[in-house]
Design goal:
Elements: H1 2-23, E1 28-40, E2 45-50, E3 57-58, E4 63-67, H2 70-88, H3 93-96, H4 98-119, H5 125-176, E5 178-180, E6 185-190, E7 197-198, E8 203-219, H6 221-224, E9 232-238, E10 244-254, E11 259-260, E12 274-283, E13 293-297
Antiparallel strand pairs: 1-8, 1-13, 2-4, 2-7, 3-6, 4-5, 6-8, 8-12, 9-10, 9-13, 10-12, 11-12
Helix pairs in contact: 2-5, 4-5
């Protein structure tokens, strides 16, 4: 009985060692991270509405509030009124020169008629010359009037285009006054509150895509030759107290330059001074968190 008890105590003493050995049976280790975006204000003004809470799940382009747009709205109304006034000054060239063109047509008919009368000796050449002179004057007036009207309309068109550009700028500022989330994710930090004054570049909140996580690990030059982008690997998330969760992962990025071994990272070859960073994409099942330690095995393709 005593021998059996001693044997059980001996096996119990070996169990933690075995667990520890299994835990370190990996090719590299690192820390889980996610894509984080700090959303900042793009315009100045008071936060009239800002419905963001830390931990909130957001969809891409979801509406979260807006910055005061009163002055922008009034400016837009003013520009639209100016555009209407400018457009009213535009004239119709064909309508304005219709009278001159009719006079020219009449003179041309008279010129043709008197030309025939001269051939029949029913009119003299001076009458034809007078009509020709009047026709020449009318044609010059038509050319000058047309040029004047076209230049006037071009100037009005230029003013209208400038106003259109200013209105487009205001509309762009109005659009940027809306606060939205650029990505689907979780709100990690909130930096401002409703009612506060904000300015361009001032951070409002931080959102992170927690569904697609990345394990940033470091490998030696020997391991580098065994890896390529898109390669499937096995990732182990460390939940403490020898609790590990397995995930399928894909190598999404491999550094093109070596760096000195980070002090907080372990590699299989502890004597290596230079290592390469790799990022392994992992689909989060809800348990993975930023900053959590993880390990990876390159020689396994299935969890």
């Amino acid at each position: 009985m005593k021998t059996l008890k001693n044997t059980m105590l001996f096996l119990a003493a070996l169990l933690p060692v075995a667990c520890s050995n299994n835990k370190t049976d990996y090719d590299a280790s690192g820390i889980f991270e996610s894509t984080e975006v700090i959303v900042s204000s793009q315009v100045s003004g008071q936060l009239m509405e800002f419905t963001v809470t830390e931990g909130q799940q957001l969809q891409a382009d979801s509406y979260l509030g807006y910055v005061d747009t009163t002055q922008l709205y009034l400016k837009k109304q003013q520009l639209m009124a100016s555009r209407t006034a400018v457009s009213s000054r535009s004239t119709s060239v064909p309508r304005q020169i219709a009278s001159l063109k009719e006079q020219i047509a009449t003179q041309k008919r008279e010129l043709a008629r008197f030309g025939n009368l001269v051939k029949l000796n029913a009119a003299n050449q001076k009458q034809v010359d007078d009509i020709q002179s009047q026709l020449s004057v009318l044609e010059k007036q038509l050319a000058a009037q047309t040029e004047l009207l076209v230049n006037n309309n071009q100037g009005i068109s230029g003013e209208s285009t400038a106003l259109e550009s200013q209105i487009a700028q205001i509309e762009d500022q109005l659009l940027k006054s809306r606060i939205t989330s650029p990505i689907q994710g979780t709100v990690l930090t909130k930096y401002a509150e409703q009612g506060e004054f904000t300015a361009p570049g001032k951070a409002l909140f931080k959102v992170s895509d927690m569904q697609q996580m990345y394990l940033r690990a470091y490998i030696t030059s020997d391991q580098l030759t065994q890896l390529k982008q898109g390669q499937s690997v096995t990732v182990y998330a460390d939940f403490g107290e020898d609790q590990m969760r397995t995930y399928p992962g894909t190598i999404s990025w491999i550094a093109d330059k070596a760096e000195f071994t980070p002090k907080t990272i372990q590699t299989r070859n502890e004597r290596a001074n230079l290592v390469y960073a790799v990022k392994i994409a992992v689909t989060n099942d809800g348990y993975l968190k930023n900053g959590m330690y993880g390990e990876v095995k390159f020689n396994a393709t299935k969890p």
